[in-house]
Amino acid sequence: MSESPREHRLAVRRSARVFTLGGEAATEAWVALHGYGQLAGRFVRRFEQIAGPERLVVAPEALSRFYRQGGVGIVGATWMTREDREAEIRDYLGYLEQVRATVIPPVPLTLLGFSQGVATAARWAASGTAAPKRLVCWGGLLPEDVPAAGLSALPVTFVVGDRDEWAPPERVEEQAAALRAAGVSVEVVEFEGGHELNPEVLLSLV
User: In this predicted model, what pLDDT tens digit does every residue of 3-17 receive, in sequence order?
Assistant: First the structure.
């Protein structure tokens, strides 16, 4: 009779990339968490218009990279998959805490997640360690494992394109209504467009 394999858990060190813009005399900081299949070095360029000496923009890159097209070509990164889900969540929350402690000065913090980065940002905000002043959920929905109570201490802004197939406006409104019913301060900003970062809307959030 064959023996079942035994699983072993190891904590290992690895390199992570974090990109920043501005912040030479920071009085506030934004952490921008990219979506599935994106890389932080490219993603952070979308925030050049809001970065400056007093506003630091920090874009950590997710720890798992992959080829987006069948093992060749363009490389992207993902925050997690369904495989070993709970461990991956713990790992990236620990990683983001290291980013906060080593890269971000003690100034008011805005967390912005785009697409898959919304779930990552929401989990970090709800963990109680990041202590942001607000959470911006752009083109994404909150994961079911983030309770409304975990977001009760900060305002939440949903940003969604009226043609966003990954975060349909009606689903965003449903989540916003549920959060409001639980006592969370919620704003929904809708713009003409799809699953994208709109530069005019981004400026309006500053």
Answer: 899 999 998 888 999
Supply the CATH number for residue 93's domain. 3.40.50.1820
Return d(Cα 129, Cα 93) in angstroms, integer: 9
> Residue 35 falls within a domain, yes or no?
yes
Assess if residue 12 is contained within a domain.
Answer: no
Give residue 203's Cα distance to chain centre.
18
Q: Pairing between strand 72-78 and 109-114?
A: unpaired
Q: Which domain holds residue 67?
A: 18-204
Look at residue 6 and tell me if it is in a domain: no
pLDDT tens-digit series, residues 90-120: 999 999 999 999 999 999 999 999 999 999 9
pTM for this model (two decimals): 0.94
Task: Give pLDDT, residue 69.
Answer: 84
Please report whether residue 7 resides in a domain: no
Q: How confident is the model at residue 204 (pLDDT cuts 50, 70, 90)?
A: very high
**Count of the separate structural domains present in the chain:** 1
Strands 18-21 vs 55-60: parallel, antiparallel or unpaired:
antiparallel
Q: How far apart are CA 3 and CA 162, in angstroms?
A: 54
